[in-house]
Amino acid sequence: MEAVIVIFSIILLYVMYVFRSKKDRKKIERKVEEMGGKIINIEKSVFEKGPFRFAGKGIMIYKFQYTVKQNGEDITKEAWVKTGGLFGDDWRF
Fold this sequence. Notes:
Elements: H1 2-34, E1 37-45, E2 60-70, E3 73-83, E4 90-92
Antiparallel strand pairs: 1-2, 2-3, 3-4
């Protein structure tokens, strides 16, 4: 019986993780589209904190590249976002 509970818990945690990752990726895409840009790549930063000083439990950090038009040209930029914090998302463009 204990093994079933452990297996169920692991499956539930994995499903929650996947759901949150998808939600965060959609949030990043929306933010960039609001700025008139287009996402090139989104990667979850597992070990690197990027420009953030602190990253505790429940925090996810993403590094993403996007293009935006400036003076008629597509410019590629890189940005970071930290999600799951007490004070909301922390965007670094």
